[in-house]
Amino acid sequence: MKKFFPKTRLFVLVLALFAPLSADEGMWLYNAPPSKWLKSKYNFEATPEWLSHLRLSSVRFGGASASFVSAEGLVLTNHHVGQGLIQNLSTKERDLMKTGFYARSRSEELKCPGVELWVLEQIEDVTPQVLGAEKQGTSPAETAAAREKVIARLEKDCSDKTGLKCAVVNLFSGGMYHLYQYKVYTDVRLVLAPEYAIAFFGGDPDNFTYPRYDLDISLFRVYENGKPGVSPHYLKWSTKPLREGDLVFCSGNPGSTGRLLTYSQLEFLRDVSYPFTLANYKRRQALLHEYSSRGVEESRIALRNLFGIENTLKATTGYQSGLLDSKLMAKKAGEEKELREAISKNPDLQKIHGHAWDEIAEAQKRLSDFFKPLACFERGQAFNTVYFGIARSLIRLAQEKGRPNSERLREFRDSNLASIERSLLSPSPIYDEFEIYKLTDSLKQFQEELAGYQEIRWLLGERRAEDVAGMLISGTKLKSLEVRKQYIEGGIEAVYLSEDPMIKLALLVDPVSRGLRSRYEKEVEAVENKNGALIAQAMFKLRGTSIAPDATGTLRLSFGVVKSYTENGRKIPCETTFAGLYDRSKKFGDKPPFELPPSFIARRGTLSLGAPLNFVATCDSIGGNSGSPLVNRNGEFVGVLFDGNIQSLPTRFVYEDDTSRSVMVHGLGIIEALRKVYDAGPLVDEVLGKK
Predict the structure, then answer these.
(1) Residues 6+ apart with CB under 8 A from 512
(2) Which DSSP symbol is given to 605?
(3) Nearest-angstrom CA–CA distance, 201 and 207
(4) Which residue spans within 211-301 are E strands per DSSP?
(5) Which of 14, 23, 208, 600 is the most exposed place for a label (fewest CB within 10 A)?
């Protein structure tokens, strides 16, 4: 019995360790869905045809999500996902954020320069090729270089062969690699956007809360060769009501989660990264509120930045609340301890995998030493102006084009060059006074944070930050698309001989920026990937691959049920209605951010006030899922995800579904508003397949 006991104990330990923490947890790969669980719990069979259709109907919209909802290239996402494009199309005289927009004919649809929408056409497992590049006994940096060389070749060969955009995706911290092949749409036009007041009703006070009453949608159309894109893969619209307990699926591009991070990585986020991020964004929030207070036009200009900052600030505060929760951290520590104990019971596993956590912990310590300069220089925190981003892209584009594809910075490989150049040559409004205002404060912060750096003395010397920012912005010519084109065509000689002050600034800080990036890639990222792969491989050996990897900003499938919940002893309903919208506005005196737009005031009598507006479900989601379609068992569109409640934020690290919910705009509520508030009958007919 004594000889048998350790094996039994190990088996029980592994089962306990890897049993699902919650039945519906996971943002699943499309080529590895939890088919058995869906069948056993929900009696649902995720057939290859069903999955393929949903995948090809799903869209990557920048850093977020969307879906095709008609046979003629109509794409639905959130208003806040399309907000930047809507603002780019706005002017002082024609503020589409305030008035909303509806193109009543195809000829009235507005082109959105520079945007790309991606559809995931194919997935290929290339793990053997990438991991096969590693030689035994090599350092993490050498291993990373070997992997990157293979990845660059795979991406280029794929793009050359297929004509698609190809990207290798790192899964399980380097334990698995998949090659994703995307069809890219570059002709995208705005069809409809409601007013900002109803799209973001309740503003920042209501953000990440529930009940909600938002019409957070926007509609675009993709074109090919001047005609609407036609595809058999789009989501048919359900006209049936949702019920408590209904199974729903979410298809989108969740940004990142940290459920498989080591304890030391969580500590780094809690003690170093998040405190810096929160302090930085609080500073910028205050700055933008001050600028907005100067006038109506200043408020309009600042809105794009302010929305993003306040959204990130509130989300990061929620993530940090999870890491500051002693119970959550104890749970993560216990899980890691149990896994390490399970590995230690097997000498072969211990020899190969046992040291991985310690290596990652050492990397976190090293990162703590240079995290702030890395953020300020390489990640651009010190130079808060769009002009600096343009200048850096131009100089690095010229520099990297002269290097072999496999040796370039990964974002400048051949597979990405067309997107970079398209972005650089696409018009978007830039307001110089606002840019001076932002840059001035970031230079002051730069001086406060990193006073010892020579680059600060060279840049500022005895001069005021205001004067330097004014000189840089007023002297640059990078607002001109023609000037940018000349730099792209002129290459390395053009940027090195440039007299443009913003180009000069980017060149001044590029050596230290690259040095910090190289240090990060060699001392931190390479260590995390090599040892993260070892941890993942140990997990695979103990359990197999029946676990979902952390989110990576790529297409995933999650699922759950429409479900109410209890908060502070009060039952929170799974749906809200238009009647609740009007009641909430009245409660706050119809004052911002609870002020209704004129269209909703004028059309109140036409609406079915009992119609559903928003709803919640237990689907696993995170930032990046904004705009994700929700579908029913039949694959029919039932809603679009736009938020999570406050309880959902710590699920970045530990999932739970007692009170955590994803928040959606209801498909029936969208139809109700389109038809009765915006007189968009033809658009309704299109999505309902009646046209």
Answers:
(1) 373, 377, 453, 455
(2) G
(3) 9
(4) 218-224, 227-228, 247-252
(5) 23
Name the β-bridge partners of 572. 565
The reported pLDDT for the residue numbered 23 is 59
For residue 561, give the nearest of 244, 265, 142, 342 by alpha carbon: 244
Tell me if 428 sits within 8 A of 114, measured CB to CB: yes
568 pLDDT band (50/70/90 cuts)? very high
Give me the mean pLDDT over the 652-678 stretch: 97
**What phi and psi values does residue 21 have, to the nearest 5 degrees?**
-70, -35
CB-facing half-sphere around the CA of 566: CA atoms within 13 A: 3
DSSP 413: S
Task: Please count the other Cβ atoms lying within 10 Å of the Cβ belonging to residue 334.
Answer: 12
Residue 590 gets which letter from DSSP?
Answer: T
Q: Is 162 a residue whose pLDDT tops 50?
A: yes
Give 169's contacts (C-beta < 8 A, 6+ positions apart). 177, 178, 179, 180, 552, 554
Cα 207–209–211 angle (5° rounding)? 120
Distance CA 206, CA 189 (A): 30
Burial code (b: 16+ CB inside 10 Å, e: under 16) for 307-321 equals bbbbbbbbbbbbbbe
Is pLDDT above 90 for 31? yes
Burial class of 687 by CB neighbour count within 10 A (0 to 12, 13 to 18, 19+)? buried
Flag whether pLDDT at 5 surpasses 50: no
| Bridge partner residues of 66 (DSSP) | 59
Contacts with 304 (C-beta within 8 Å, 6 or more apart), sequence order:
83, 84, 87
